[in-house]
């Protein structure tokens, strides 16, 4: 890698890629300065760093190093975007395979206490090449369909690695193996919290947004209140809800029977719902406001009733903007749902907070990594849907 | 027949339409003309109740237009606006099918009507049916806008500056088409414009508005010859008056027996265009041809007489 820089610099004629310079520095640090893996005799003792060359069998280590250096070189130099994409995807796959191999290589035969986890060098390399891939993808401006296909391929690769057992010697999967039942239960809760609050927010936020465009006097006050809710720190909001929810559970007949309590999933759902409302409501308002005035006038003038106009003209034209609000909410809620664990609401945050309590970073990762993967996947899927729902010509008509 | 009876519209403290009364006979074109902000659009929108008057009434064929629910009234009245207002998310066919759809026509009848209208506006149905509005030129969009307004065969058509966004050549063609369609179906048309030229070309009657008041409502020749107020005179443009008068007459109406040299003029040509042609070719007279046969001649002198102020 260092070689790559000097060649390019002394050569003078080789054009450098701006982002590539930063990537190359990250790659150099990840490959040479930081540990590729961390070895611990058991799950809570302090880890010992293992460099890339120590973490793998020599042949594999040198092969990976060569690949990483070559990938860094591709990042550094100006090259066709497709080459950059291929290089970044290739190195990413190699890294994912290698980290599993490192787990197997570093774990002593038959030892079930030892823990091998990805080191900071691995994460930095992963980050650098993911960034390179994201940059290449955004510059290629792929169609939504192709992006969804790409996501499916990535999911398939990840699934194949998991099923193959390649990562079974990594600490995070050992943590998983010890609590796979709990993992899927909490993952289910997590998804339920994120999507449930989204469904509630959509079902109520879109009608509220429609009402605000029909009653402009309410618009300012309602949006202000929702704005204030957004600014309450999430932990505070979760806490604030404990008292009223407990009161409801105690005083409203049947409330506790359907699961309402001061702590648990119910207040978590309510808090996530409260956060979700502003993006959905305000995007509905903005979307409806953006429908060209002439289009609305024509619809009314031709004899559509209010309801027909809303259903046939205004909502279809506002749909991409509303969907953008839904995208914001979903990605936000997948992340925020982690905090639900603090008030006993469950979700993947359970592992994060347990892990912090036990200073077991592997357990933290078991909660955090799926959350991040889920959020990224949701963002990609919804971005694609938003783009597919946008109609050419509609935006010019807005102008 | 549309009777506008002492219609007033007040917004806040501003009287936007001030006690306007006018009658548009069935099968004629009334053009409302005036400067921007004079209340033309507001007046026109009281007809299909997009604006409810503060006082006064609008009757259609003798019946108060409030007798029906507003949406039912509007489905019977064609409505075309500047910039066409096409639904950007619907195809050309779906746009045209809007009102027939609202009226519950069956699919086959709707499809036939769409094709019929596309033909009428010289757009090949097979090529245009499935296009989206943004895939059309400005002139095509405008034609689809009018086709959509006519889809359910309304007796009345309201048009608010329908040609405002078109270039002069396309606009002239669209105006010709409108006159042809009106003559063929006998539609009663109320058209709003700020362009006196357009008003004279299209209107059987012209309503001149200023600051909410109807200043004059007369045939074009009377508006030109006897403007009711200095404002009307100014709107016509004093130096333009002779030529505006000429533009009201066709060569056929002025043809006299006799011979003349040079290329013949078409009988359908306006006297104004004939006058320009004679001046340009340096002739005193020209033969007049109808369907290729010479039917007489027009003389510069005869045309000039037409341009003089009627006594
Ligand atoms: N809905 C409304 N509320 C308040 N004022 C209006 C409204 N519609 C029109 N006006 C005012 O009425 C006047 C006439 O408007 P309009 O009928 O659109 O004029 P024109 O079509 O002749 O340009 C303008 O001053 C306009 O600002
Ligand atoms: Mg107007």
UniProtKB/TrEMBL annotation, chain A:
Principal location listed in the UniProt entry: membrane
SUPFAM superfamilies found in the cross-reference section: MetI-like (SSF161098)
Keywords: Membrane, Transmembrane, Transmembrane helix, Transport
UniProt keyword Ribonucleoprotein present: no
Compartments in which it is found: Cell membrane
Cellular component, GO annotation: plasma membrane
Tree of life domain: Bacteria
BP terms from Gene Ontology: glycine betaine transport; transmembrane transport
Membrane topology per record: Multi-pass membrane protein
Membrane-crossing segments per the record: 21-41, 61-78, 85-102, 122-141, 148-167, 187-213, 225-249, 255-275, 334-357, 363-386
Start and end residues of each ABC transmembrane type-1 domain: 187-382
Entry's family note: Belongs to the binding-protein-dependent transport system permease family.
Protein's recorded name: ABC transporter permease
Organism of origin: Salinarimonas ramus
UniProtKB/TrEMBL annotation, chain B:
GO biological-process terms attached to the record: quaternary ammonium group transport
Keywords in alphabetical order: ATP-binding, Nucleotide-binding, Transport
Organism superkingdom: Bacteria
InterPro entries, alphabetized: AAA+_ATPase, ABC_transporter-like_ATP-bd, ABC_transporter-like_CS, P-loop_NTPase
Record domain ABC transporter: where: 2-236
Transmembrane segments: none
Pfam families named in the record: ABC_tran (PF00005)
GO MF terms, alphabetically ordered: ATP binding; ATP hydrolysis activity
Protein's UniProt keywords contain Nucleotide-binding: yes
PANTHER family, A to Z: OSMOPROTECTANT IMPORT ATP-BINDING PROTEIN OSMV
Family in the record: Belongs to the ABC transporter superfamily.
Stated name of the protein: ATP-binding protein
């Amino acid at each position: 890698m260092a070689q790559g820089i000097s060649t390019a610099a002394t050569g003078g004629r080789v054009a450098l890629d701006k982002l590539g310079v930063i990537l190359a520095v990250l790659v150099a640090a990840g490959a040479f300065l930081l540990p590729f893996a961390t070895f611990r005799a058991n799950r809570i003792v302090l880890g010992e760093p293992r460099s890339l060359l120590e973490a793998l069998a020599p042949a594999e280590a040198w092969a990976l190093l060569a690949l990483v250096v070559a990938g860094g070189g591709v990042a550094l130099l100006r090259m066709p975007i497709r080459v950059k994409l291929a290089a970044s995807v290739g190195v990413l796959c190699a890294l994912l395979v290698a980290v599993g191999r490192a787990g197997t290589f570093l774990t002593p035969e038959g030892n079930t206490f030892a823990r091998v986890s990805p080191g900071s060098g691995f994460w930095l390399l992963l980050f650098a090449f993911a960034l390179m891939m994201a940059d290449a993808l955004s510059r290629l401006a792929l169609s939504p369909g192709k992006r969804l296909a790409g996501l499916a391929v990535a999911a398939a690769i990840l699934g194949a690695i998991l099923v193959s057992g390649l990562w079974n010697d990594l600490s995070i999967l050992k943590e998983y193996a010890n609590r796979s039942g709990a993992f899927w239960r909490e993952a289910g809760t997590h998804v339920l919290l994120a999507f449930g609050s989204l469904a509630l927010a959509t079902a109520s936020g879109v009608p509220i947004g429609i009402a605000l465009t029909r009653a402009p006097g309410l618009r300012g006050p309602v949006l202000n209140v929702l704005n204030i809710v957004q600014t309450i720190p999430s932990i505070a909001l979760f806490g604030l809800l404990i008292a009223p929810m407990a009161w409801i559970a105690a005083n409203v007949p049947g409330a506790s029977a359907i699961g309402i309590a001061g702590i648990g999933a119910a207040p978590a759902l309510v808090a996530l719902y409260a956060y979700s409302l502003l993006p959905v409501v305000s995007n509905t308002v903005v979307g409806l406001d953006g429908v060209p005035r002439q289009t609305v006038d024509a619809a009314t003038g031709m004899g559509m009733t209010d309801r027909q106009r809303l259903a046939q003209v205004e909502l279809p034209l506002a749909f991409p903007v509303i969907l953008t609000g839904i995208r914001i909410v979903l990605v936000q809620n997948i992340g925020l749902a982690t905090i639900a664990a603090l008030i006993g609401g469950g979700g993947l945050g359970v592992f994060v907070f347990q892990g912090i309590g036990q200073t077991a970073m592997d357990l933290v990762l078991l909660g955090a990594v799926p959350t991040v993967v889920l959020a990224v996947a949701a963002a990609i899927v919804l971005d694609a849907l938003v783009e597919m729902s946008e109609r050419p010509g509609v935006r010019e008509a807005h102008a | 027949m549309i009777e506008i009876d002492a219609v007033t519209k007040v917004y806040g403290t501003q009287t936007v339409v001030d006690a306007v009364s006018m009658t548009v006979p069935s099968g004629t074109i009334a053009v409302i003309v005036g400067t921007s902000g004079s209340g033309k659009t507001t007046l026109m929108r009281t007809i299909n109740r997009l604006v409810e008057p503060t006082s006064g009434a609008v009757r259609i064929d003798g019946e108060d237009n409030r007798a029906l629910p507003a949406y039912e009234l509007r489905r019977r009245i064609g409505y075309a606006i500047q910039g066409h207002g096409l639904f950007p998310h619907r195809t050309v066919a779906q746009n045209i099918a809007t009102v027939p759809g609202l009226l519950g026509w069956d699919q086959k009848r709707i499809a036939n009507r769409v094709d019929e209208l596309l033909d009428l506006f010289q757009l090949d149905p097979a090529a245009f049916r499935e296009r989206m509005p943004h895939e059309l030129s400005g002139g095509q969009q405008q034609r689809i806008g009018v086709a959509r307004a006519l889809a359910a065969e309304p007796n009345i058509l309201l048009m608010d500056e329908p040609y405002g966004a078109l270039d002069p050549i396309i606009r002239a063609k669209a105006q010709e088409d409108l006159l042809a369609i009106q003559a063929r179906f006998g539609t009663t048309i109320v058209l709003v414009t700020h362009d006196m030229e357009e008003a004279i070309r299209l209107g059987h009657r012209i309503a001149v508005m200023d600051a909410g008041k109807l200043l004059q409502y007369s045939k074009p020749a009377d508006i030109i010859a006897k403007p009711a107020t200095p404002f009307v005179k100014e709107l016509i443009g004093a130096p333009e008056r002779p030529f505006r008068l000429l533009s009201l007459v066709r060569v056929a109406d002025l043809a006299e027996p006799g011979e003349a040299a040079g290329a013949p003029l078409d009988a359908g040509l306006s006297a104004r265009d004939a006058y320009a042609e004679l001046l340009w070719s340096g002739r005193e007279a020209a033969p007049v041809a109808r369907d290729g046969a010479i039917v007489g001649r027009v003389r510069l002198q005869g045309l000039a007489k037409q341009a003089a102020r009627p006594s």
